[in-house]
């Protein structure tokens, strides 16, 4: 099957230049496949696709198929009906949570065949879904708020009515408090009273709707910079979005005004009327506590670590999933080092530390090397001549005299008639050796000559 394929890296460099997908107006014969290379798509996850077109129109709920970590989009003829730069956005949802959202550029070329380009479609189901959820959660919050007020009135009435008990008044007041808390939960979450309330409240769906609407407006991600870099005129271009690497307080150049604090990692974008505005998202307050938060990431730790894995530099502005991925890799590397160090007791070597033991052994090796360098080997050949019927003999004066001769060696270079003959080498002081070829049968005569090789070892 022919397809246009692109690799997607979510946990590494998302600011890298992406080669756009090139497509011809009004065609639909070739599907698009995105391969997620550093992220595992959750089982049973759903993928929603929409395309933002140059005119501002959009196509939503396009047909997609998830196979492992690959997402295939079936192209409709209206999907790329407008010539120019479009943006494909994928949102991967795991239940109620949006776990992945990214945009990919598409360059739509002119279709020169007359009558083959269908009219550009437009629908808003994707955004309407979030707006509907906002209304539902606000209705729940308003209903609960009304109940809280009613319970509070009952509490006041019970307290004023001398015929009603103090217990009834207390119960009504407690009921009013509970309704108020539940109303707060449906409005913005963060009360700890409902499961998943932070992603099932009016505030969350508002932020998601705002996020989508901003994506539809053609916002262009430009990477990570410091807050101070926002003052650079080159960055002050409408629809440019930046991730801010440090904490900051807004000033008069921001849409919301001066004096608002934001954490490092906040996204800001340039509005068409020349202001900065903070991108939608749920941020932990600067004085918040994240002890109950969970992080989904690809763990590289392993109980049996058999190899070292290089880890990239931990940089400011990284996502939690990337940070924990690197930390888990280092955990695995520590296990590997522990395994490689072994369990042999080295407490008596170099103070018991690894570096001390290595230094101690290095010093010992230096001593051995120094002693080896002092030893000197000399060798050569010599002819042994008649000495007695039982011996052939040669005396060799060494080319270089030793300060201490250690050993001498000799071997026959040519055979003699009696295989029982053997060679010996005797040191004579530090500058001579005596070489004998011996035969207990006394076979040697004055005409016998024998070549031998010799070698000596000593200290200069």
Task: Provide a short characterization of the protein structure.
The protein is α+β, with helices and mostly antiparallel strands and 460 residues long. Helix content is 25%, strand content 29%. The protein has five helices and 21 strands.
Account of the protein in words:
The structure is a single chain. The radius of gyration is 43 Å and the shape is elongated. It has 5 helices and 21 strands. It has 460 residues and is of the alpha+beta class. Strand 6 and strand 7 form a beta hairpin. Helix 1 packs antiparallel against helix 2. It has helices at residues 125-160, 166-188, 202-216, 320-341, 354-374; strands at residues 4-8, 21-24, 32-36, 46-52, 58-59, 64-67, 70-73, 84-94, 97-109, 220-225, 240-244, 248-249, 261-262, 267-270, 276-278, 375-388, 391-397, 404-412, 422-428, 432-438, 449-459. Strands 18-21-16-17-20-19 form a 6-stranded antiparallel β-sheet. Strands 2-9-8-4-5 form a 5-stranded mixed β-sheet, with no helix packed on it. Mean pLDDT is 79; it is low at 280-285. 25% of the residues lie in helices and 29% in strands. Among the domains are: 4-123, Immunoglobulin-like, CATH 2.60.40; 130-202; 374-459, Immunoglobulin-like.
